[in-house]
Amino acid sequence: MGRLRGLTAGGNLLAGVFILGCSNFLGFLEMYLIVGCLAFCAALYALCRRPDCSSLPRQRAGIVLKSRYWLFYALTILSGGRRQIFTVFSVLLLVQRFGYSITDIAILFTINNSISWFLNPLIGKAINAWGERRLLTLEYVSVLGIFAGYALLDNHIVICALYIIDQMVFNFAIAVRTFFQKIAAPEDIAPSMAVSVTINHIAAVGVPAIGGMLWLIDYSIPFWMGAGLGLVSLLLVQYIDRELRRGRATA
């Protein structure tokens, strides 16, 4: 999973290089058309592939919601909310308060994904060595400091550094999925991952809307909200080892 996230970061890196290279002579319309055509070609390629594997357990059809997966659901929605604050408001902070251009943001985007390309496989190894609870604890302790920095500091260089660190520690979220795979019945994995995407989108709809209204009052409020999400997540991840023991007992 770490290697796959690394490949995803590699794709994002190519997108950042494309934006960085073309932003000076192509408009938004032209760049969206080019990327849209590439996505369409990728979709046509995907239609010709058969990703199924008969050796894997047959997955349940329909939605799977089980009380014993409660911690996975909770961490997923909190992670989705935190992700939206990082994606929307940290960039808005750089653009609105510090006047960053599309080129500046593309450079940051490229730096982030260059780091993630190499970091994600190492995160996978770290999960195997130290376990999900320790790694996620490190992530959420970092989140508290990062969002407090966004809210309190007024130096754009420091904010850029926090933005890069934020992207780095968000990659630790791989551990939420590996935790779930350890406690889930094999036939529940695919439908539960679909449920997690739905849960994530609940946060994706609600957090930017609420955060945007709060931003108009004071730009720091969404970041304090993100720190609150990080604190709740930090408390919840302390239950991971207990849930892993329960998962092994019911396996």
Structural notes for this entry:
- This protein has 251 residues and is mainly α.
- The protein has one domain: Growth Hormone, Chain: A (Up-down Bundle).
- Helices cover 80% and strands 0% of the residues.
- It has 10 helices and no strands.
What is the overall pLDDT average?
85
| Number of domain units | 1
N-C termini distance: 23 Å
CATH architecture assignment: Up-down Bundle
Indicate the CATH topology: Growth Hormone, Chain: A
Task: Briefly summarize what is shown.
The chain is mostly helical and 251 residues long. Helices cover 80% and strands 0% of the residues.
List keywords for this structure.
mainly alpha, single chain, Growth Hormone, Chain: A, 251 residues
Topology record:
Elements: H1 2-22, H2 28-47, H3 70-98, H4 102-130, H5 132-152, H6 156-170, H7 174-183, H8 189-217, H9 221-236, H10 240-250
Helix pairs in contact: 1-4, 3-6, 3-8, 3-9, 4-5, 4-6, 5-6, 5-7, 5-9
